[in-house]
Amino acid sequence: MAENNATIVCVECKERGGDLNIRNRRLCVECFSRYVNSKALKRMESYRFKTLEGDQKRRLLVPLSGGVSSLVLLQVLDTQLQRQIANRNKTAYELIIAHVVLPGQSASAFKDQHLTQLAQRFPSHKFLPSFALATALSFDEAIGEDLKTVGCERHDQESDPDFFHRIISGATSVTTRTDLQSILLQRLLVAIAKAHECESIIWGHSDSRLAALTLADVAKGRGGSVPSTIADGLSPFGVNFNHPLRDLYKTELEIYATTLPEPLMEAMAASDDALLPPTSLRNTAIDTLLTDYINTQGLKYPSIMANVVRTGGKLEIRQTHSLCRLCVQPILNSGNPSPSVSTLCYGCLRIKQDIKP
Ligand SMILES: [Zn+2]
Ligand SMILES: [Zn+2]
């Protein structure tokens, strides 16, 4: 009788209704929110007050793509910092927020107005004006020389956008184009972090995203960069990389974003281009295919996705490896005894073959 109307109770607090089904456990919104925050903050323990020396100021860079993951990351870190202000009237670190506009983002993409709205919503952090991806070509001082190793050389007086356009349109496959863009994006973000004296970049990648990055690296012959792409700690770039959302699935971040008292939906819904179906397989990069695959199939097998990331993270980087000039990742000479010193990794050698600038 009465049982028919009884709601399922949250397994954590055993008080409120367990409206959410999270990894086969019924949770209320409050307990789920605590779950997301504690999973993320457990990965931020190296940035506690305890680890600060004297009156050291610690700055961390958060790249904001406008997708759900980086928005949730910003929300979680902001909540932690607000709590620190309330308890101690100071924070253990400062956040610098950087957004890079990628070429070809559709008209509905994350725009400057979204950035302004977020800066108003999170006023205690420093939001940098958005960067065009082409600014990587001057912001990273070494990149001009490094691009010569794949046959791309700037013409006299050529502007960043013109040079960028020439490089990207010289790529003969979509995968190479995407690969080049992600290398430039990473180098730009590292250059921004260094310019603003940030000791670390805090990435918003979920477990699902890290699995997609791992599989894409392997598929593109970039197995050597897997450990440093997904590991927490000092990266080959000389700044730390951290992934506090690595234990959370993308679907969980989406639920979190929509169940907040003030949902993070608006900016996010406008920017999730990954949800658009690819127009044709031929015009789709490996990265996009794997991301789509994981966002659909991976949902059914989340523990396999978690295994991909865990296994990838266990691969060792041998210290003796030299770093690739372009992507700044270890060069693996798999079984090749030749002592010839290569300046490019296998993945970047393929870029060199696929680009006709
Ligand atoms: Zn509860
Ligand atoms: Zn490389």
TrEMBL record:
Known role: Plays a central role in 2-thiolation of mcm(5)S(2)U at tRNA wobble positions of tRNA(Lys), tRNA(Glu) and tRNA(Gln). May act by forming a heterodimer with NCS6 that ligates sulfur from thiocarboxylated URM1 onto the uridine of tRNAs at wobble position. Prior mcm(5) tRNA modification by the elongator complex is required for 2-thiolation. May also be involved in protein urmylation.
Subcellular location: Cytoplasm
Species of origin: Exophiala bonariae
Keywords: Cytoplasm, tRNA processing
Cellular component aspect of the GO annotation: cytosol
Family: Belongs to the CTU2/NCS2 family.
SUPFAM superfamilies: Adenine nucleotide alpha hydrolases-like (SSF52402)
Annotated Pfam families: CTU2 (PF10288)
Protein name: Cytoplasmic tRNA 2-thiolation protein 2
GO biological process, one term: protein urmylation
Pathway: tRNA modification; 5-methoxycarbonylmethyl-2-thiouridine-tRNA biosynthesis
Gene3D superfamilies: HUPs
Gene Ontology molecular functions: nucleotidyltransferase activity; sulfurtransferase activity; tRNA binding
Keyword Methyltransferase recorded: no
Signal peptide positions (record): none
Gene of this entry: NCS2
